[in-house]
Amino acid sequence: MPATTPALLSDLRDHLLAWYDVHARPLPWRIPPLEGRAGRRPDPYHIWLSEIMLQQTGVVTVKPYFAAFLARFPTIQDLAEAHLDEVLGLWAGLGYYARARNLHEGAKAIAALGGFPTTQTGLLSIKGIGPYTAAAIAAIAFDQPHVPVDGNIERVLSRLWLIEAALPVAKPVFREAASRFEHSHRPGDFAQAMMDLGATICTPRNPACSVCPWSKSCAALAKGCASDYPKKQAKKAKPVRYGVAFVVLDPEGVWVRRRPHEGLLGGMLEVPNLAWQEVPYAPSECMREGVVQNADWVACEPVRHVFTHFELRMQVFSVRLDEVVTPDLYHHVAPQALAQAALPSLMRKIIASGQAGLRTK
Questions:
Q1: Is the peptide bond before 44 cis (omega within 30 degrees of 0)?
Q2: What is the mean pLDDT of residues 117-144?
Q3: 318 and 349 housed in the same domain
Q4: Count of structural domains, the chain
Q5: Which residue among 83, 131, 221, 304 has its CA within the 20 to 30 Å range from the CA of 145?
Q6: How far is 155 from 168, CA to CA, in rounded Å?
Q7: CATH (domain of 153)
Q8: Taking the C-alpha atoms of 96, 97, 102 and 103 in order, what is their torsion angle to the nearest 10 degrees?
Q9: How many of the other CB atoms lie within 10 Å of CB of 150?
Q10: Residues 326 and 223 placed together within one structural domain of the fold
């Protein structure tokens, strides 16, 4: 990274904040910059909730989930007192379900403290709050001089200073680069301005350099190589795993069971399914689940689902029973309650495939 001076950093801060005052995105968890300058502070609960939801998820997707959460849990105390099933049900579809479990645990810890810690160190003591989220809450909600570093900010910094270190292993390099901007003048607005700059101007493809407030100082623009940054390590091909799922419907609804609270999709509901493995199941293996013996199973459309670290391909079979059965380890979800149930996207795809298969039988 090139050498910087306090004067240069001050100039960059001033230009970015002036741009943000005009172009800040209106977001439901955000206090507009003019109101912030007049002394209105954002609710730390709103900032925390939005930052957790925005991990690995876009703003457009998050907005309705954020609204639904606040409608049901308007305060941190409401969230702390909620049943985990209801939290997971509202989270269904956002993915990365450990976030919801940690959010619930974190709410209980914050309620027990009587409110949010106001420092980055204190925030890091709450389960589920890591360095980025702690810096974001501390800056935005409590005006602490921190610069959180997400993917948008990494991209901005890499182009501004031609940072050659490759992500993701070089994250400490970017945190050090961002720390140069730490300052007591409007740190919350500056953090959000950096996020907005990356999200709306310094985009991964076709950045709008002509309207960027940092264009005169951007090394990548001067060299005409913005699209080459940030540098990233080559991605490995995702491995593929295989499974078999069974959608069982009787007069009371769909059979489901609870997944273990730890691990992938922890605490969520699932239909009966076989362990995911590295090779496809042979046809003779598919019926060994045993929850319904000698049933008239229907082979349905397979389901493909992509997780962060692997791709899952599921064979799907479904059956409709005429009598109500209460199997061990399972319970029913009525068809009209499926939308509110704590079912991850994968299981919703599987149930939809099973229902479609029965309709066409």
A1: no
A2: 95
A3: yes
A4: 2
A5: 221
A6: 12
A7: 1.10.340.30
A8: 90
A9: 20
A10: no
Cα angle 221-224-225, degrees, rounded to a multiple of 5: 95
Tokens of 151: 């993917």
Query: Do 220 and 276 reside in the same domain of the chain?
Result: no
Q: Which of 19, 26, 14, 32 is nearest to 212 (CA)?
A: 19
In a domain, 233, yes or no: no
Q: What do you get for the CA distance between the two ends of the chain, in Å?
A: 64
Return the active site residues: 51
Residue 234 lies inside a defined structural domain of this protein: no
Q: Are residues 165 and 309 in the same domain?
A: no
The domain boundary residue, chosen from 172, 202, 228 = 228
State residue 361's pLDDT score: 72
pLDDT at 93: 87
Q: Are 221 and 159 in contact (CB under 8 A)?
A: yes
Separation CA 174–CA 162 (nearest Å): 11
Residues 6+ away with beta carbon under 8 Å from 57:
94, 95, 96
Verify cis geometry, omega within 30 degrees of 0, for the bond prior to 168.
Answer: yes
Parent domain of 306? 240-359
Residue 201 domain-assigned? yes
Asked if 288 and 245 count as a contact pair (C-beta separation under 8 A), the reply is no
Please write the tens of the pLDDT for every residue from 48-78: 999 999 998 999 999 999 999 999 999 999 9
Same domain, 292 and 143: no
